[in-house]
Amino acid sequence: MPVPRVPGRRDRLQDIAVVGRKRVLLAAPRGYCAGVDRAVVAVEKALERYGAPVYVRKEIVHNKHVVRELEQRGAVFVDEVDMVPSGAHVVFSAHGVSPAVVAGAADRGLQAIDATCPLVTKVHREAVRFARDDYRILLIGHEGHEEVEGTAGEAPEHVTLVTSPEHADTVEVSDPSKLVWLSQTTLSVDETMETVRRLRERFPQLQNPPSDDICYATQNRQVAIKKVARDADLVIVVGSANSSNSVRLVEVALEYGATAAHRIDYADEIRQEWLDGVETIGVTSGASVPEVLVEEVLADLAHAGYGEVEEVRTAEEDLIFSLPKELRGDSGPRGGRAPGRSEA
Ligand code: 0CM
Ligand code: SF4
User: Fold this and answer.
1) Residue 5: its pLDDT value, please?
2) pLDDT digit string (tens) for 83-133?
3) Of the four listed, 48, 234, 246, 279, which is most buried by Cβ atoms within 10 Å?
4) What is the pLDDT of residues 20-43, one digit of tens each?
5) For this structure, is 147 an active site residue?
6) Is there a contact between 96 and 147 (Cβ–Cβ < 8 Å)?
C-alpha cells in the first residue's frame, strides 16, 4: 500500500529498490557566496544595532527562506524607498541599486546601508567608466532583474540590454566602432559566451570587459554541477525561482547530461515520482541558499535510501567581504561568521 504523502515529514519519500547503487553526488562549491553572506549579516547587524524594524529595499538576496527568517526578526521588505518612513534605516540588497534609488533614499532622509555585492559594484564602475569614454555598452542580462536595473541605471543613455543569444542576432547599434559588452554577474557562462560570439560576428570591434563580470561564485557552482551532471540521473537544485544563478544551475545540469533536473525551495517539494528508477542524484544549491536547506534535502533522500553521499569538489572558496561601511566598527571587519577565511 502506498505511504500517504504528508509534506514536511521525513518519511514522505519511500525507499524503492533500483537496479544499481543508490547514491548522492553533492556538488561543491554550492550555497552561500561571499556577497550573500555579507548582505545577510548586514541586515542581522542592522537589526542588532538599530532594533526592528529595519527596512530592506527588495529581497536582500533571492531566497524565500532567508527573506522569511529575516522578516521574523523584524526586517521589512519594501519594493521602493518611497515606502520607507522618512529618517528610517534602509538596506540596499546584494543586487545593487541605480543612482536614482540612492538619490531617492537621500531625498527622504533615509539612513542607507549599502549591501550591494562588491562584485556588482565593480560592474557598475565599469559601466560608469565606459559611458564616460562615450562607449555604447551592450549589457548582457535578464530584463527586469534588479541587478540589471541597477547597472543600467548608472548610464541609461549608453546601455543597451541584450537578453539572449537570439537577441544578439537582432539588436541594433548606432555606432559599432566604440562598443563594449558587460554582463549581469549571475548568468550562464556558456550562454553568455554564445551571446558574445554572435554579437562579435555582427560587430567585430566589440571590446571585452576588463575582467570577468560573471562572478567567481556563479562560475564555480556551474563548473561543479557540470561534473556532477555527467553521472546523475536526477539533479536537485536548491534555490528560489527568482534566483538567476540557481535557475541557471538547473539549465546547466540538463545541458551537461543530467536526465532530469528540478529546482526546489524546500525538501518537501521533492516528488516521489522523480526518484523512479534513479540510482544517482546530484545535489547543489544557489549562491543565496543557506546550507540548512541542503541538509534537509540530504536527510529526506537518506530516508528514501540515498544515504551514501559523495562530495564532488571542483574549487575551494575562501573569499570574504568586509561589512558595508555603515556597519563597520565595534565588532571587527564583518562580525565574523566564518573565521579563517581571507578578506577581499
Ligand atoms: O542574481 P541572482 O538572482 O542569482 O541573486 P541571488 O540573490 O539568488 O544570488 C546572489 C546574488 C547576487 C548579486
Ligand atoms: Fe556577489 Fe556573485 Fe554572490 Fe552575486 S552571486 S552576491 S555577484 S559573489
Assistant:
1) 40
2) 999 999 999 999 999 999 999 999 999 999 999 999 999 999 999 999 999
3) 246
4) 899 999 999 999 999 999 999 999
5) yes
6) yes
In the numeric block, which cell numbers belong to residue 333?
571587519
Opening angle at CA 56, ends 51 and 57, nearest 5 = 160
3-state secondary structure at position 163: coil
- Could you count the other beta carbons within 10 Å of the beta carbon of residue 26? 21
pTM of the model: 0.94
Residue with cell 550562464: 188
Give buried/exposed letters for 85-120 (b at 16+ CB in 10 A, else e): eeebbbbbbbbbbbeebbebbeebebbbbbbbbbbb
Ligand that lies nearest to the alpha carbon of residue 33, given by its number in the listed order: 2
Residue 93 Cβ contacting ligand 1 at under 6 Å: no
Q: 161 — phi, psi (to 5°)?
A: -85, 135
**Sheet containing 309-313: which strands, arranged edge to edge?**
260-264, 234-238, 280-285, 23-28, 309-313
Mutate to test the pocket of ligand 2, among 119, 126, 211 (most ligand atoms within 8 A of CB): 119
Residue 332 three-state SS: strand
Going by pLDDT thresholds of 50, 70 and 90, the confidence category of residue 330 is low
Which is the catalytic residue, given 59, 126, 147, 154? Answer: 147
3-state secondary structure of 183: strand
CA distance linking residue 262 with residue 142, whole number of Å:
21
- Its sign, for the CA torsion 48, 49, 52, 56, is negative
| Alpha-helix residue ranges (DSSP H) falling in the chain | 34-50, 64-72, 99-107, 118-132, 146-152, 165-168, 189-202, 216-229, 244-255, 291-303
